[in-house]
Structure formats: structure tokens, C-alpha cells
Amino acid sequence: MASISQKHIQLALSLPPRLRTFFARYPAATILPEGTAPESAKTPYQEEAPNPFLSTKHPVTGRWHDPKYSLRRQAELVKLARTHGVEELLPFTTKGTEERIRKRVELGLRVKGTGVGEKVKGHKHERHLVAKMEKRRKAMLDMPDLIREWKKVGKRNWTRWPK
Amino acid sequence: MAKKAKSRVIIVRLLSMAMTGYFYTFTRPRVARPMSLLKYDPIVRRRVLFLESKKKFTGGR
């Protein structure tokens, strides 16, 4: 028993300081010494945020608080843990390898905005293009009549000026 | 001090009635009637009616 935990300690000491600090603050339930209840052995960090990778809702104010670790730092930790083979000890994160694979399976190599019910917003001039061309087309269809009327009324007596 | 006198001639904008937003600018005497004329609109590539629009020069003073 003691030798196993000794081995674990040796392993832990071989980790980079960044990971070591993280696991000291947020130890996974699986690496706690045997016999300790996971609830009572929580570190103060864990009591504050059970999963530092997820945003939490404040129980009193009801406001959402950002995760303790930003997505960038989460990804960095995941990469670091993966190279040292301890990724399964990290709490759940969207940056984890499994989650990434799951997302890739779910979504594939799709291009955002091309799915059913999705559309690309586009630039303003692109959004207004159809209406603009329609207005222009209508104006051109009415143009002969307008010119005829303008010639009949005469430029001296014309009253319909554009706003 | 007296106010500055209004100029005798004004700059007017003649807007294409093809709704292309294309316009010509001319000067005309302030007291004259508003301008209107048939002129070429390069966007629809045709001669269309141009009418003087209300003076609201937002671009270029």
C-alpha cells in the first residue's frame, strides 16, 4: 500500500509545476488517499468551485461567474496533462480530448452557416442587395412613363421633387 | 455686425430617378426654378430623368 502511494508521489513530483499546482488545488477523487471521504477532503479551492473549468451560478445573486481557468488556460493544461499521460485526472472540460472527438463526430467537418435553418449573415450591402435591385428595376420600368409625363408637364411646372 | 449675405448662386444635386443613387451636381441661381433634366446614368447605362433633390449635403460640404 505504502509503496503504491510512494510511487504515486514520485509520479506526481515528475509532473511540471503547473500541473502539480493544479492537482494540489483540484485533486480528482480517484487520487485521494484511500479511506478519505471525497466530500470531507475537499480543498478550499474545490469548495469554491467544484469544477474550475465551468462557469458557475452564484447561489445568492444568481449571476454567472466565469470559470476559474480561461479556455486558453484550460487547453494549455489539457495539452500538458496529455503529454504526461494524466489527462483523465483533470475535471470535465470542453477542451478535453474526448470531448473534442465527440464534437468532431457529432458535427463532422461541416462549415458553419451551411446547415438546415442556418444562414450566413453577410455584409449589410449583401443583405439589402435584392431589395435594392428590385427597387431599381421597378424605377426603370416606370421610367418611360415618368419621362413622358415630365415632358408633358414641362420642367417649369414640375412639382414632384424627390424628398 | 450684419449677417453674411446669402450667395446668389447655389450648388444643387440632381438625383437619378432610376434609384441608383447616382447624381450630378450643378450650380444655379438661387432664385431660379429647381432643375430637372434627362441625363446619362452610368449604373443603368441609359439616359434617365434627373431631378433636383432637397438640399441635404451630408458628403463633401
- SS-based class of chain A: mainly alpha
Helix percent of chain A reads: 40-55%
Number of helices of chain A: 7
Q: Strand count, sense and closure of the main sheet of chain A?
A: 2 strands, antiparallel
- What is the average per-residue confidence, as pLDDT of chain B, rounded to a whole number? 89
Tell me the strand percentage band of chain B: over 45%
Low-pLDDT stretches of chain B are: none
What global shape of chain B is seen?
elongated
Average per-residue pLDDT of chain A, rounded, comes to: 89
Reading the helices and strands of chain A in chain order gives HHHEEHHHH
Structural domains of chain A: how many: 2
Integer count of domains of chain B: 1
The tally of helices of chain B reads 0
The share of residues in helices of chain B is: under 10%
How far is it from the N-terminal to the C-terminal residue of chain A, by CA? 90 Å
- What is the element string of chain B, with H for helices and E for strands? EEEE
Total beta strands of chain B? 4
Shape verdict of chain A = rod-shaped
Radius of gyration of chain B: 14 Å
Kindly name the structural category of chain B: mainly beta
CATH class category of chain B: Mainly Beta
Structure, described:
The complex is a heterodimer of chains A (163) and B (61). Chain A is mostly helical. Chain A has 2 domains: 2-107, no CATH class; 124-153. Helix content of chain A is 49%, strand content 2%. Chain A has a two-stranded antiparallel sheet. In chain A, a hairpin with a 6-residue loop joins strand 1 (56-57) and strand 2 (64-65). Chain A is rod-shaped, with a radius of gyration of 32 Å. Chain B is an all-beta fold. Chain B has one domain (10-52): Ribosomal protein L33 (Rubrerythrin, domain 2, Single Sheet). Chain B contains no helices and 4 strands. Chain B has a 4-stranded antiparallel beta sheet, with no helix packed on it. The two termini of chain B are 25 Å apart. The model of chain B has no long low-confidence stretch (mean pLDDT 89). Classes of the chains: A mainly alpha (163), B mainly beta (61). Chains A and B meet through helix 7 of A and strand 3 and strand 4 of B. Chain A: This is Large ribosomal subunit protein mL59 domain-containing protein. Chain A: Residues 17-152 form the Large ribosomal subunit protein mL59 domain. Chain A: Residues 35-60 are annotated as: Disordered. Chain A: GO terms for molecular function: structural constituent of ribosome. Chain A: Pfam families: Mitoc_mL59 (PF18126).
